[in-house]
Amino acid sequence: MSGLEDLYKEIILDHYRSPRHRGELDSPPAHKAEGFNPLCGDEVLLTFALEDDVIQELLISGQGCSISQASASMMSAAVQGKSVEEVRKLTRQFKVMMSIHEESIGAEDPPSEDDKPFGLGDLEALKGVVKFPVRIKCATLSWNTLLTGLDELKV
Amino acid sequence: MSLPPDLKSNFPLLSQTINGHQIVYLDSAASSQKPDVVIETMNDYYRTINANVHRGAYQIAAQATEAMEQARAKLATFIGARSANEIVFTKNATESFNLIARSWGGQNLGPNDVVLISDMEHHANIVPWQILAAEKGFELRWIPLTPDGHLDLSQLDRLLNGVKMVSVTAMSNVLGTLNPIREIADKAHSAGALMTVDGSQYVPHLPTDVMELGVDLLCFTGHKMCGPTGIGVLWGRAELLDAMPPFLGGGEMILDVRRDGFTPNELPHKFEAGTPPIAEIIGLGAAVDFLDSLGMNEVRQHEIDLTNYALRVLNDRYGEEITIHGPSSASERGGVLSIQYRDVHPHDLSQVLDQRGICIRAGHHCAKPLMRELGVGATARASLYVYNDQADIDALAESLAPAGELFAR
Ligand SMILES: Cc1ncc(COP(=O)(O)O)c(C=O)c1O
Measuring CA to CA, how many Å separate A58 from each of A46, A71, B50, B128, B375? Predict the structure, then answer.
């Protein structure tokens, strides 16, 4: 079963089996963002506490396939303690990695050298998803949800 | 009599390999594969008699018209209609429902009316009513389900209060449940309502007789019954269709057009505006011939046998680890198996099966209200048709365990 290892890397399965930062913060005071994948019924609920534009804590609840759950879990680990600006950059990088047509991502907001400093670390494990185009939406669900949540704050 | 054992060889797609495995196609509830004879009939049409139908005085135009009208007659016979004029060609079942809602509903529904559907409907039999209800202000009411996946008809008399149209599926595309259409239709009629049936999953799999079902309107779709995509059917009682206003306007559906208005054509052309999908209609006619040659009783028996086999093999092997939604007896259901295996998400299950060339569907199957009732976001659905055999079920059963090893938590 060749291609499957590309998709289901050990670290992805680990995040799926033992998801990090599960739960819900009281909202308010925490902020809340909800996302759905209308095609497959996956749903994610993010609650996060912001202080001075820094994500102090972010928790995840909801349900979905291994890819959407692992991606959410990895995201939760990656964004704790980061500033909103840093999170936006990371999200941009992640979405570039997840895109088949890189040029279609945020044309008005292209990734620059400036976006590099963090590296994607563990998140690179999700790169294999691109070979399975129907699953890309699973991987980006939590990220898009967080972006929408941050946009709504107008920070 | 049973189906010929080498039926797969009639379906060219099924000889393919996927990821090094012979393809195992278990998604016929979404769309069936096509036999050679359907593909060839459509090719022959384009190669030999392609011309616009009706009106043409030359030979191939007459042949094309004749072939199309023959297909209409075949469909009428196939479902027990009294006349070929009761067969209206649409794009698919979805368009048939939209036609009914717009035409009949637009004329007959208002603020104090009720349309009764059920919790196991496909979106095609939900959303057209919702769109119209937002305009007309009628109530859309739902028949609930029993825990074992049947319609709960215990309150049907009460639910029918004030209802003008009942519209339910003859067979669920998620649970496989076969519904007692005759009983519901009789009660609907006693309550003064009309009865529409979604035959999308029924007509391809069981002998169908609209007179015996006792219904007024029936929608089904060509691509699930060995026919091509892009062709569906609305059957209706002639007197009902006659009383309904046209749906789409344009060529073909008129007898006369003047500056001050138009006179609609006779049935069925009144509902067939524009150049029809001629090749698809003729292809669907070939599909009907193909199914007739197998015999619909044999088709049904084959699916009962195979469904029984699948239920037995999966339950024996996986016991508590597997849930198969819907009725537990094959006599009460069609060959649609929505499976929950351990806590493996349907997406992940279908991905692992795909690596073995096994095609099943993961998702909500266009039945979100039902998914909410079942308390799941998605199911993994394996569905059967004439070309499936025990080896296909064995391949499915073999592949669940490895998926479980990978994903069970
Ligand atoms: C029960 C049922 N009704 C309606 C439809 C709609 O069919 P189509 O998409 O061909 O219009 C389907 C299939 O998708 C179905 O399973």
Answer: 7, 14, 63, 41, 27
**Does residue B2 lie within any of the structural domains?**
no
Binary contact (B407, A13; C-beta < 8 A): yes
pTM of the predicted structure, to 2 decimals: 0.92
Tell me what percent of the residues of chain A surpass a pLDDT of 90.
Answer: 32
Nearest CA in chain B to A138: B347
- Write out the two tokens for B28: 């016929």
Active-site positions of B?
366
Of B293, B323, B350, the last residue of a domain is: B293
Q: What is the CATH number of the domain that holds B322?
A: 3.90.1150.10
- Report the percentage of chain B scoring pLDDT > 70: 100
Q: Which domains does chain A have, with CATH numbers?
A: 4-153 (3.90.1010.10)
B174 neighbors B367 (Cβ within 8 angstroms): yes
Cβ distance of B346 and A65 shorter than 8 Å: yes
- Identity at B206, one-letter amino acid code: L
B60 and B26 together in one domain: no
| The two structure tokens encoding residue B35 | 């036999």
Q: Of the residues B293, B313, B334, which one is the last residue of a structural domain?
A: B293
Supply B405's token pair: 């090893």
